[in-house]
Specification:
- By secondary structure, the chain is an alpha+beta fold.
- The protein has a domain at 14-87 and 100-141: Peptide Deformylase, CATH 3.90.45.10.
- Helix content is 24%, strand content 25%.
- Bound molecules: zinc ion (ZN).
- Residues 90-92, 132, 136, 178 line the site of zinc ion.
Amino acid sequence: MSYGPLKVRIYGDPCLVAKSKPVKEVGPVERMLIAAMFETMAACKGVGLAAPQVGINEQIFVVDTGKVVMAVVNPKIVKSAGSELMEEGCLSIPRVLVDVKRAKAVWVEYTDVENRRVKAQLNGLLARVFQHEYDHLQGKLILDYLNPKDRTKVLSQWKNGSYTGKVLGENDDYRTKI
Ligand SMILES: [Zn+2]
């Protein structure tokens, strides 16, 4: 079997707000999915992509910051430190940017493509992307960091095409598309 080109799901798709299931074991099928996710992420010029964003509610995501490439399965955030506000976009909510407060450093555990459990401390952009993708696996989106009033406003404008808040343009830094 092959996954072929994956379609990035856009806000409104139920997969994006569902909780993803842990993966029992990383085998050939999971590795094939991971490879297809890397291709899809590169085609979208994204820096991260979670399985629910391609319609699969399993605890898998991929990251490519330009410096670090990671495939992450069954992640846990064990500890976090610091906090930093930064604008984030999401491939599943095109053009919308939200200021999201996240930990500056995270201590994480995850399973890699070889089915080994890995422990790591992540900082900077990598820590941010990891937290964003981890949220996707819980069914949480950047919109959920807005207060209810702004959330409703941004969403209704985004849906009817009149969104005039922060927008991510075609030529903006791809690294904010996660
Ligand atoms: Zn996202």
